[in-house]
Amino acid sequence: MTAQRTYGGISAEERRAQRRAALLEAALEIIGTEGLAKLTVSGLCARAGLNERYYYENFDSRDAVLTALIDGIAAELAAAILAAVRTAAPDTRATAHAAITAGVHLLTDDPRKAKAALIAGMATPELRARTTETVRTFARMVATEGTDFYRIPDSGPAAVVEFRALYLVGGLVQTLTAWLQGDLDLTRDELIEQTVDVFVLLGEDMAGKLR
Q1: Are 31 and 75 in contact (CB under 8 A)?
Q2: What's the rounded Cα separation, in Å, for the pair 122 and 147?
Q3: Is 24 within 8 Å of 72 (Cβ atoms)?
Q4: Taking the alpha carbons of 120, 124, 129, 130 in that order, is the dihedral positive or negative?
Q5: Which contacts (CB < 8 Å, 24+ apart) does range 201-208 have?
Q6: What is the C-alpha to C-alpha distance for residues 171 and 139, in angstroms, rounded to an integer?
Q7: Helix ranges restricted to H, the chain
Q8: Which of 121, 39, 34, 140 is nearest to 73 (CA)?
Q9: pLDDT per residue over 47-90, tens digit each?
Q10: Phi and psi at residue 125, to the nearest 5°
Q11: 126-160, pLDDT tens digit by residue?
């Protein structure tokens, strides 16, 4: 029984996790270099070097692959942003600059991630719904961080904080998508600086009204 579960010191569960990771990396490569239309079961398995049965071991549809891929990128993004916030200088602009730089760099240092997260995420109604929920999750994170940073009382109007956080995150997603598609004539550094200006402006204004 043990021999069946373990091979070369790697358990069956670990091997399955490795195959899943290989399939997701292959999906990222296909979307990022060839486009979403090229993401087929046979193409994905060929790119990952796996038999098609391993695809069905992990996924039941292309949307399931894309959902897992987008969720993984979102988790990376959240971790990078929170790490940047924790190590930033304790002032408004430095904190906003650190967080936005970390997020934009993660998505653009590897352009495949931006394409998967921001473009493929709008491919179907189900993926659009998933993307909307991801945006709301990030907005809640921004609202929590902003409330703590500005020391806004717990009794403050939560709806105002949530509105501004959602406005900022949703606007950033749309702006970044337009920039990636070449519709904004800005360098990456200019994009970051402009975004920081907006976050600081709305954050300071909100804090002044609610404190």
Answers
A1: no
A2: 30
A3: yes
A4: negative
A5: 202/164, 202/167, 202/168, 203/92, 203/96, 203/146, 203/149, 203/150, 203/164, 204/92, 206/146, 206/150, 206/152, 206/160, 206/161, 206/164, 207/150, 207/152
A6: 11
A7: 2-5, 12-33, 41-48, 52-58, 62-87, 92-109, 111-114, 125-150, 158-180, 188-210
A8: 121
A9: 999 999 999 999 999 999 999 999 999 999 999 999 999 999 98
A10: -55, -40
A11: 899 999 999 999 999 999 999 999 888 876 678 88
Phi, psi angles (nearest 5°) of residue 46: -65, -40
6 forms beta bridges with 11
Is pTM beyond 0.85 here?
Answer: yes
Rounded Cα–Cα distance for residues 94 and 16 (Å): 42
Gap between the Cα atoms of 3 and 177, Å rounded: 49
